[in-house]
Fold these 3 entries.
Entry 1:
Amino acid sequence: MNDTVFDVGFPADCRGREDLTDVGITTMAKLIFGCGYVGSRVARRWLDGGDRVFALTRKPARAAELEELGVFPMIGDVTESLTLPLKEDFDTVLYAIGFDRSSPHTIDEVYVDGLARALAALPIDVQRIIYTSSTGVYGQSAGEWVNEESPCEPQRAGGKAVLAAEQLLANHPLGARAIVLRLAGIYGPNRVPMLQHVQRGRPLALTGNSLLNLIHVDDVVEGVLAAENSTQLPSRYNIADGCPVRRADFYGELARQLGVDPPCFVEPNRQLPTAQRDLSSKRVRNTRMITDLLPGLLYPTYREGLASVIRSASE
C-alpha cells in the first residue's frame, strides 16, 4: 500500500484554489474523508471557526454541494489509486468514510484498504487524525457492559472491518497522533430508523428486547471537535450516551412523542444484515468519554434526542 498516491481532481470552477500556497499564503487546513451525515456537520463547525476545510467525495454533484457550503471539494475515491495535488499543511484529518451497500466494493476494500491508501497519501507531519470507528467492534451479545478495554471479537463484517482499520492505523507512524472514536448508533434529523413505520402504525420487524446504544449526531460532532484538541494521544473512546435502551422502549417513546399508538413487533428475517445487527445486545459504557473528552452531552438520553428530532421536523 505504501506506493499508493492520490490523484484527486477539483471541479473545474475551483481549480485555482489549489495554488494558494504558491503565492506565499501559509494556512492550516482540515481534511475530511467522507463528508456525509457526520462529516458535513463537522465541516460547518470548522468553517464557522474560520478554518479552511477540504473534503474528498466520489460524486461531482456532491462536490458542488460542498462548494456551496464553503468547503474545497476534491473528487476521488479511496478504493482507487489517487494523487492528492494539494500542498496544504493539514493540521487535522477526519476519516469518516461510510460503506455504500450499492457499491461494487467489499466492506474491507472500503474501510481497510481505503484507510491504507489515505494514510499512504498523507504527509507525515499531520498533527491529528480522527478515525470514526464503531461500537460494532464489540461482539458481546448477552447484555454485558463494555468499555474501551473490553475484548473486541466482532461477529459482523462491519465490526471486523473497522477493527482491522483501527489496527492498521495503530501500526502506522501517524497512529501515534490518532484518536479513534467508536461511535454508537447515530440518530438525528432525518435519521431515525423506522420512524415512518411508527407514524403509520406498521409492525416493526425487530426484536423488541434487544438493546440499542445510541448517540445523537450533534454529540458526535462535539466529540470530534473535542478529540481535535485532546492531549491524550493516541487514544480511543466510546462515543455513546451511556443509556442503553430496549428497542421496544425506544420505539414506544418515539410513538408517545409522535402521539401515535405503540408499535407491535414481528420476527425479523434473519438473513438480512439489519436483522444480524438486531441480535447484538450489549451495553456500551462512556465513562472515559465523559472523564477525558466530553463531560456533558447535548442529548444525554434518547428521550431528549427524539424530542429535538421531532421539533426540527415540524419547523
Note: The radius of gyration is 20 Å.
Entry 2:
Amino acid sequence: MITTIYFVRHALPDYSSPEDRGMPLTEEGKLDSFSVAEKLSNIEFDYVISSPYQRTLDTIRPLVDKLNLQIETDERLGERKRGSASDNTPDMVKKRWADFDFHEVGGESMNSLQSRNMEALNDILANHQDQTILVSTHGAALSSILNYYDPTFDYEDFNRIRCFTPYILKAEFDKSMNLVAKEEIWWIDKN
C-alpha cells in the first residue's frame, strides 16, 4: 500500500514582519491560498499537519475550512532557525548547502533542520500508513526532506524552487517509508 503526502510550501509572506514565526501572508499570498484550496479541494485528506508558523497555517486555511478538516501542528516542521538577517545572503545559503553542519551565529544547520523534519515525517508515515496526508511547510524544510531521499538535491535545486510560493509537491511512500514517487503538482513563481 502507498501513503500519499501533498507537501504545500507556504504562499508569499510579508518579509517586512519582524518576527519569523508570526510572519503573515501578504495580500497577494492570501489570494494565492485560495488557489491552493482550488487545486487540492478534490483530494480526500485523512490527516492535515502543519508547521506552527503563521504563514503555513494561513496558506492551507481556505482548504481546511472548505473541506471541514482539522489542522495539527508540529514544532519539528518549522522553518530553519535563522541567525541575523544579514546572515541570510546568497553566499551564506550556498555555504549552508555546501556544508550541512555549518550554521551562522544563532542559526540552525541544515543537518539539524533535516533531522527534525525527518523525525516528524517518519512519525507521520508510521502513524498514517496508507492514508492521504497534507503537510504545510517551508522551502528550506521541504528541501531538506527532498535532500534526505535524494542527496543530489542541492543548492541549485533549492534555489530553483525558493521563489515558488505557494508550491505543491505530491510524494508517495511505501510501507517501509521509502519515497517511491514524487511529482510537482503546481506552483506560482514569484521571481
Note: The CA atoms of residues 82 and 163 lie 18 Å apart.
Entry 3:
Amino acid sequence: VHRNVVFEGGVNVRLTLSPCRYLSQVMRLNFTRESHLRRYNRLLSYNLLQEMDLLKSLLESTHSPVVFCHNDCQEGNVLLLNGRQSSDKQKLMLIDFEYSSYNYRGFDIGNHFCEWMYDYNCEEFPFFKVNAQAYPSKAQQLIFIESYLCESDQGFDNLSEEDQMRLMEDLYVEVNRFSLASHFFWGLWSIIQARLSTIKFGYLDYALARFDAYFQQKKIWANGAK
C-alpha cells in the first residue's frame, strides 16, 4: 500500500490529504439547486467543525508512522497482471497515483478497508452503490495485516506468536481509527466536487454515504474498542 519510508524525530511533514485542508472550503460553499441545497444543509447539520476536533483528538492519541502512501487504493486502481492467475503468488499492480503523498500509514490501510463497501461500476444515478456489510471483518483484516507486517517489518517473522499478535492487534486498532479520517476526508472532498466537478456522479449522495459510515464506525472506534 505504501513505501516503507518513516520519518522520526519530529520531522514536520505536510500531509496533503488532511481533512482540515477541505473543511474551510466546505463551510463557504453555495448551492442553488434545491436538491443540492437540501443535501448540503443536512451535511452541515452534522456539526463538522466539532467532529473534526474530536477526530483530531482521537488520531493524535493513536500512533501511526508517516510513510509514502497511495491514498486511493480502491478496486479500480488495483490490476491483476495478465498470465498471473495460476501463479503461486499472484502479482498485483497499483495504478493512478494522483492522490499519492506522505501520509499516516493508518489512513492508507484504513482507506483501503473502507473502499470494500463501495461499488463504482454503476450506470444509474448516483453512479455508486454502498454495502456497509462488505466492510472487512476482523478476521479478514488480520489476514491483510499479517501479510503487510511480514513484508514491511523484516523482524516480524522472528517474533514470538504472542508478540506478532500484539503488533497485529495494535495495527488493527490503528487502521480502524484512521478509517474515520478516510470517511471524513472523502466526504468533504465529495461536497466540494459537487460544486466544482462536471463529471456525472452523485457527489452529495456519496458525501452523505461516507459520513453515515463515519458515524457508524465512530460508535465503535472512538471509544478505543478492539
Note: The chain has seven helices and seven strands.
